[in-house]
Amino acid sequence: MQFRLSTLLLLFVVLGSSLAVFGGGGIVVFIILVMVAISVARSMWFLALLGFLLLLALFLPAYPSAREAGRRAQCMNQLRQIALALHNYRQANGCFPPAYIADKNGKPMHSWRVLVLPYLEEATLYKQYNFNEPWDGPNNKKLLASRPRGYACPSDNAACAPGDAGTSYVAVVGTNAAWSGGSPKNLTSDVSTTIMLVEVANASVQWTEPKDLSLDALLTSSPGSQTVSSNHFPNDESFTYSSNPGANVAFADDSVRFLPGGLLASDKFPDLLKVGGFREEYLDADWSRVGRRIHWPNCTAFAVWLASTGWLFVRAVRSRKKAVVSAVE
Known about the structure:
Number of strands: 9
Number of domains: 2
Distance between the termini: 24 Å
Largest sheet: 5 strands, mixed
Mean pLDDT: 83
Low-confidence stretches: none
Oligomer: single chain
């Protein structure tokens, strides 16, 4: 009875640590590990080797990175499409759209994200929007559920949650920024060094909401001000983490680049968001280790998984040896 209870406890630890390390795929890992352990206990070495190979094939360390690289590439493409829509708006209207359209009292009513809908092949949705009421009015509020897919980064867990109408992409608005709020701008110089759009993960900004990133707040370090961020390298997929893992940004010449998290967290970054403020030399520095910390929960889970898995196979080998001794006797 004691042997069975200890075995069940060991299996429970292996299952729990597998789930902690591999997420939902931990169930598959657990099943394969148990099959391998049983094969070892019964000297079925071919099946044990086959199980190990299957485990390696399914859960190579590069797998999460490759998956996230695809999401980041999709995010860059979406941001590029929005930047192109801004340029098409400029060609049609002689200037970039304002960050928002305000009412007679200066209160923001409508976002630039609504104004560029016709240039994102969303003309039908644009016609349904009522500019005679605010963005959260009775009619316009119904359109939140019709958010264009390209307004949410695939790595932004909050924006991609079922039923969420948030956006991952905001304009840089401020006195010295590419956007000046309710007044449109027509940038004719420094377009390759001026950042217009940025990612903000978990921003809680509805896609029709006239709300964006305030450069003035960043420059003055206002408490609670949003900054550029993303979820492109989630903490639960590595043994180290950064409060800002890097993010995509779009320039006024419709190019898109990925900026490292170390640069985004540096005190130099707010100045890069000014008109003509971006400098290539900032990308030459090694930002990979800046602000990174050990992710102790993940490290602990992995250590427990290794220890419990190792003990599982030790038990399997001992069981096989006892079987051999019993057969000889």
